[in-house]
Each structure stands twice: as structure tokens, then as C-alpha cells.
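Researcher: I'm comparing several assemblies side by side, and this is the next one on my list. It has 698 residues spread over two chains. Same procedure as the others: predict the full complex and return the structure.
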Amino acid sequence: MLQDKNTSKTDLSQLGEFGLIETLTKDIQIKNPSTLKGVGDDAAVLNFKSKNTLVSTDLLVEGIHFDLAYFPLKHLGYKSAIVNFSDIYAMNGTASQLLVGLAVSNRFPLEAIAEIYEGIKLACRLYDVDLVGGDTTSSRSGLILNPTVLGHVAQGKEVYRNGAQPNDLIVVTGDLGAAYMGLLVLQRENEVFKVNPQHQPDLSPYSYVVERQLKPEARKDVPVILEELKVQPTAMIDISDGLSSEVLHITKQSGVGAHIYAEKIPIDPQTVLTAEEFNISELTAALNGGEDYELLFTISQKDYEKIRYRKEFAVIGHITEEPGAYLITQDNQKVALKAQGWNALKNKS
Amino acid sequence: MLQDKNTSKTDLSQLGEFGLIETLTKDIQIKNPSTLKGVGDDAAVLNFKSKNTLVSTDLLVEGIHFDLAYFPLKHLGYKSAIVNFSDIYAMNGTASQLLVGLAVSNRFPLEAIAEIYEGIKLACRLYDVDLVGGDTTSSRSGLILNPTVLGHVAQGKEVYRNGAQPNDLIVVTGDLGAAYMGLLVLQRENEVFKVNPQHQPDLSPYSYVVERQLKPEARKDVPVILEELKVQPTAMIDISDGLSSEVLHITKQSGVGAHIYAEKIPIDPQTVLTAEEFNISELTAALNGGEDYELLFTISQKDYEKIRYRKEFAVIGHITEEPGAYLITQDNQKVALKAQGWNALKNKS
């Protein structure tokens, strides 16, 4: 994974706002032809020609979405970009520009902010996104990251949440529940560390689930594959709050129902083992854990042959005409899905 | 000014994230043809046709940019939108879409968040901007608002900070320094209130300066007037950190210098009176106070006749070939401008 190497400390108040911006943005290179002007003016200037513009924003708040006790700053920057890119892929689009709103305690030295930015810039490089603007300011207490992502999609190729039709197949990418198990592992190690700071955790049995939590990736490949396969999904959403919550968004907005088959939900063996260790069901992790940043989409049955042999995709159920979203268990019980997904508004403080 | 009327209290944790979004966004109406899809999916979908897209983001952080002791929530929402719109007008563009990142303490009831949104929605209505997305989450402590604005400008009509040429005239809109004096008045009344909560402040002698602080407006009219007058500025910036800071941005980025004449700087009589009362120079307020959200631009001398009788504009100086930005005082002293503008990274907590 990524490493935080820097140990020197430069006081932000010495540097000033403009000095900080210059330090953080001086090595930015613009790669996308749609970016006409990046950082350095009142606004960035872009041109998407005839394509549709996509724009989305997602907040990450210290103490709510992450804990700096176990979340390295560079990873945090990386993840804040990834979760935003994911929203563009969920529209079947290409992410191309990022702006970053960043509020930090003035107890943070320059080097800490630079680490966050290193993570953001790494994500931008790997996903071909231009960092074109933002705003950095101090905050009275916690760290808040609020990136905004822009992207584009050919007109008519955008995929909304509301287009699912009865008998459509429900497809997910990758595997689910790992990021949540990674979170539980990190929280447990952090509790042990508090009691015994000499403790050296061995995270190697949990490498996959921990990486899914600390360094998630977004499915940039999926819109490209769908284009190659000539598959236009009828509805799509990214899995940020857990499978249950996302299936309910699609069924509610499309005015349909869904059956999901428990045995079809893709779950990594390490997620299963870790869930056993924590004495929870791996299905709970997949349905309600969230932060997978995989994509959930629906396709017409006629497209089944096009996708069935693609390892990226798993068909997990189908859309029904009658409303209501249900999990069909292995012993054929029908359980209503609930949006128990992670709710950032609940009283956690 | 705006009024906060609501006194009932609904707990956010009862409502949940999706309930909150529904409550806040149900009455939103889309007005701009460039908005194809607003709130309710993974991303908003826009189309600016052949025009250039403009995008900018500005953070407002409690305890740094505002104090809720004297800043009503509805005004705060309004201002958070206005300061973002201002960045689009500073590019000579039209603001058309807004997304809002909002982190609030979960001690805030729904009604408090609804007040903030009322202010945002009012600003959107008055400025013909569509509210198309955002993210709302709880925060461990303070209130943070991070709107992102999008807009558009005909290709080639955008105005950067770096185009000022020697002998160009330097022009400002409106008047300067009032918002800063309004801030000082509000801070003083707040100190009095802390000592004596029965004290009923009479703000009527300060109505203009207080309104400039609590309910600033952005110069939506200026790009329209410039178009009518067939004036294409050579450089433009909005005045958020004070005149000095903005003149220095333009001269630095354009590789030129500037002379500003103290007697030409437009300052409202109430700003002058209030500054006298606080025993500071009104010039200091205009040069370093900030938050005016007026526009500063440079034009070729040949365009002088086109603008000279427009009451919206004041010519305050000219661009020089030799570097260095100077204030020329009434007794003909030459004083170097410094960016003493308001610095959100200084140690204020």
C-alpha cells in the first residue's frame, strides 16, 4: 500500500494560503483535452464539446467517515478521490476533473496536507483525472475532505438509477463486504494499540480486506467494458452504502421490485474468514457494510449472453414487476432487504 | 434582511440521510436548459453545448469564516452560494448550477439545516442557478459549507487573471470595505451581548455595512453589461480577500505592475463613518478587509469611453510595465500594496 514517509514539519501560518496552494499544485500536469485551464484562476475552464457533463460531490469527515488513528493521510487523500470518481463511473461516464475542498486543523503542518494531496494526485494520475481546483482552509477541529468530480458521457449513454424494467438481470462487479471487514480489523487493532502501544499488529492475514478499506479502487474499467460489449445498462449505481441500500435505490426510483439470491452474491474468501472470526455473517457485511465502490447495474435479459463469461460481473438476481426488494436465502426464505447501510447522520459522537 | 422563523426541532438521526435529502430537495425546480438531471442520482447531468464549462469551489468554515453567534443560518446559506457564484462572474461567465457539501453537528435539528438550505435556495432562485446535487453529513464539531458552482461562457469570452497589459485601466465595481466594517460592528455587538444579554443593539446606523457582511450580493450584472458595451476585459478577479490582494494576483499572473489612486477607490459614506468610529482608515478596510464580492478588472484604454459613464464602474488606476503594485496616496506618496488580506490559515483558534 501507500507509505507516509515525510516527518518534517512546516507551520501553515508561516506559509500562508497562497504559498500553500503554490506548494501543493506546482507539479500538477493537465492531461485531458477537456481541461482548458486548471488551478490558478477564479474558476477552472473546461469544454466537453457535445458530450454531457457529469458532476458529483462526496464529503469525508474525520470522526464520522474515518479515524486518523488508523487511516494514513495519503490513503485518505487517495480514497477521497476514488469515492468521487466512482459516482461518475456509476453514470456510465469517464471521470476527468477533480476539485478538492479541504478543511484542516491549523495544528496540521504543511507536510501532513502534502501527504493528503500526494494521495489525491496519485489517484488522479492512475485514473487519468486532472486536478483543476479547490479550496484549502483551516478548521477549528477535525479534518474534512470534500472533493467534487466532473466527467463526461456521450449523449444518451448516461445510465440513471430509475430505468430498471421487470425481468432485467441484476449484476454486480467485483466482490462485496471486504471493506467493512477491513474496517472492523483496523478498529480492533486500534483498540489493542491503545491498551498496549508496543503491540505490533500482524495484518497479513487481513491484507485484502484492509486494503479494500484503506485503498479502495473505483470501477473505471466497467463503462469501457460495457461499451466494448455493446451493453447499455438500464439502471446503475455505485455500492457505497451496502448492496441492500443500493438495490432499494434502484427499485424505488424505477418503480419495480427485486429478488437477490444470497448464494450468488460474490464475497471474497478472506472476507468470509474474517467475518467468521468476528462472528458475523459475511452476508451482513456484503448487504450492509458499504464502501465497496463496486457497481450495481441492471441489464435486459437479451444482453445476458454478452456478459455471462466476463469475470468482472456476477448476476445476482432479477427485477420483478411487483414492488419490494427481497433476499432469497439458500434455504429459499424470502427476506425483505432493509437500508441498514451506514448512516452518517446517526448519533456517533 | 432574511429572517429565521422556524423554532421546531426534528432530530436528524430519526430522519436518516435519505429522508433528509428528500426533505431538503423536494421543492427544487430546474430552470436552466443546461441542466438535464439534477439531484437524485450518482451525479448531475449537464450539457453546455459548445460553450466552455466553468467550475469553482469555496469553503466556509465555522469559527474561521463565520461565527454563528451573529450569523443567521439562512444568511449563511445565502452567502455560501453567493461567494461561489462570484467566482463564475469573475471569469465573465454565467453561473448555472450549484452543488452543496454540508457537514453539520448532529446537535443541529432538521430545521436548522432547512434554514441553511432556504438561504441557498433563495440565492439560487434570485441568480437563476439550479441546485443539482450535494452531500450532507454530520461533523464532530463545527459547521462546514462547501458549495461548488458550475457555469458557462462563450468560447473566447472567458477572462483570466493573467491578461493585463501595460497602460490598461484598472476598474472596480460597486464600493469596497463595507463588508469588513459590518463584521467589526457585528463582533462588537456580540461582545456587548455576552456581557449583557438584555442589551438590544441598534444596528440601524450600520444597516448597509452589516448587510454587506451578512447578505452580500454577487455581480451577475457585470458580464451582461460588459457584453452590451462590447467590452472584453483583459483580466478579471473577484474581490474576496481585499483590493490589495486581488491587484497583486493580477499583476503577478500578468507579469506587470499597477498604480492605484487612493482617492479613486469607491467607498460608501457609511463605511467611512463606521471606520472613523472604529478609529481605522477606510482605505485599510477597502484594501485589506475583503468579502466585498465586487469585481476588479482591467480594460484596454480604447474601451474607456464605453464604460466611463456607467455608474457600476470606477476607474481606480492603471497597469504599468515595471513590476510592483502601488497605492498612490492623496499627497502623492507611493506605497507598495501588500496582500494583508484575510488569511484563513492563520492561527485564529
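Model: For your comparison table: The domain at 169-336 of chain B is CATH 3.90.650.10 (Phosphoribosyl-aminoimidazole Synthetase; Chain A, domain 2).
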